[in-house]
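Researcher: I'm preparing a figure for a lab meeting and need a structural model of a single chain. I don't have an experimental structure, so a prediction will have to do for now. The sequence is pasted below. Please return the structure as tokens so I can convert it later.
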Amino acid sequence: MRPYYRAIPGFIIRELWKRRNKKKHEEKNISLPRIIHNVTRHMNMFAKMKRTNMIGEGSWREILKDLEEYRPKVKVIQVKWENPLSGIENTTNTMIEAKVILEASKHCKISQHNQ
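Model: Understood. Here is the structure written out token by token.
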């Protein structure tokens, strides 16, 4: 919920700034219900961006109720570890890196890349 409460003042300030600029530069007045509608719309879009399967349309109470009750669906997959096939050794990264370097140097020697 914290990101939504942090975003609300930004949406309000932006709409008030737009109202100020429309009044000052274009001599148009934006009504208070229009500002409330725009802030609510931006809050709705922000909530849907963060939580795509959220329904939340309408009033502030409905949006905040949906945000508080929202629980994301968690998919759980059980994974069982099995012993590796025969021929695969249990070793460290250092041992594997040494074996890879040895195999690479053998390949370079056979391909005559060490000139």
